[in-house]
Write a structure and sequence with these properties.
4 helices; 19% strand; 139 residues; Double Stranded RNA Binding Domain; alpha+beta; 41% helix; two-stranded antiparallel ribbon
């Protein structure tokens, strides 16, 4: 297995990746019952030597919902009946996840609503209020 290249300044060494294989669930008959096609890919972000401190901090912050308490990122794939294809999918997902997570987030520049947008909002409120007033009139 070769290293996963994420960008020109980040690549994940294959030696830091841990693979686990098990039997997939669901339909499939004899094939499912006899072959270990489910793939679990683990990468210890907290202990990785491939990351700089800023990259590690950014990845841990942006992937906080996907990383466990020990700092390990896990991906589980059991989409296909082929272990080889599931491994490829896991690597693709890891690469895509890291590309998104390593990007610096743009700061939101606060803006004010324009005069036209305020007028549209107030006009819509007036129309809704009139509609409710019309419902209340006794005929």
């Amino acid at each position: 297995m070769e290293d996963i290249v994420v960008s020109h300044n980040l690549s994940v060494p294959s030696t830091e990746l841990r693979w686990r294989f098990s039997r997939s669930g669901g339909p499939g008959g004899q094939h499912v019952n006899t072959s270990s096609t489910k793939v679990e890919l683990s990468w210890d972000l907290a202990a990785s030597e491939a990351l700089g401190e800023t990259q590690r901090a950014r990845l841990l912050a942006n992937l906080a919902g996907r990383v466990d308490e020990a700092g390990v990122l896990r991906l589980v794939v059991e989409e296909t009946r082929s272990q080889h294809r599931n491994r490829e999918i896991a690597v693709e997902r890891l690469r895509a996840l890291l590309i998104e997570a390593v990007k610096p987030r743009k700061k939101r520049r606060p803006t004010r609503p324009t005069r036209a947008s305020k007028e549209r909002r107030l006009q819509a409120k007036r129309v809704r209020g009139e509609r409710k007033q019309d419902r209340r009139k006794d005929w």
